[in-house]
Design a protein that fits this description.
InterPro entries: Acyl_CoA_acyltransferase, GNAT_dom. This protein has 185 residues and is α+β, with helices and mostly antiparallel strands. β4, α3 and β5 form a beta-alpha-beta unit. The chain is globular and about 40 Å long.
């Protein structure tokens, strides 16, 4: 399947909402039970890109949305500002075709270039496919929260995985340059 990675835009919100809706209703990657509205997804999108985090779309040859990925704050306390959390969602027809791996590689590159030093994955349902994707892109397992969520009539574990970006912990970051300016205080 042919696809193109590009910056996501406000025009993508209906497609992003649809992909996320399917994941909320049928999957365990999100612990939301009720899918958010387009208006809510637009607010979330604006908050993420407003903080200069990357938000990437994967579009098919026909222009239709196949998936998306973004980075966001893991926590909003100042000491966490060097770490981002990744999120990737794919349309059902796009799964298993390498689109997730391409989105993850692009997200890692963009976050590294922005100056982030660590990326964390919080994998709802400890999904084997998501764990495999993260392992293939350099993440390591750092923790398992057993029974962290309850959805679809069962208890779900949550896997935590982490990947070093750029210089990681080998050098001190510059607090006067992004992302050092995030949540400073």
């Amino acid at each position: 399947m042919s696809f193109l990675l590009r910056d996501a835009s406000q025009a993508d919100i209906p497609a992003i909402t649809g992909i996320y809706r399917e994941s909320v209703l049928n999957g365990t990657s999100s612990y939301e039970i009720t899918p958010p509205s387009e208006a809510e997804m637009a607010q979330r999108f604006a908050a993420i890109v407003g903080q200069q985090y990357p938000y990437i779309a994967a579009a098919g040859a026909d222009g239709g949305m196949l998936g998306y990925a973004y980075a966001s704050a893991f926590r909003v306390r100042p000491a966490y500002r060097w770490m981002v959390e990744d999120s990737i969602y794919l349309a059902p027809e796009a799964r298993g075709l390498g689109i997730g791996k391409a989105l993850m590689a692009e997200l890692i590159d963009r976050c590294t270039n922005l100056g982030f030093r660590q990326m964390i994955a919080v994998i709802g349902g400890a999904s084997p496919a998501s764990i495999a994707l993260h392992l293939k892109t350099g993440f390591v397992e750092v923790g398992l929260m057993r029974g962290a969520g309850y959805k679809h009539g069962r208890w779900l574990d949550t896997m935590l995985m982490q990947r070093v970006l750029g210089e990681g912990m080998t050098t001190d970051p510059d607090p006067s340059a992004y992302p050092g300016t995030l949540f400073a205080g």
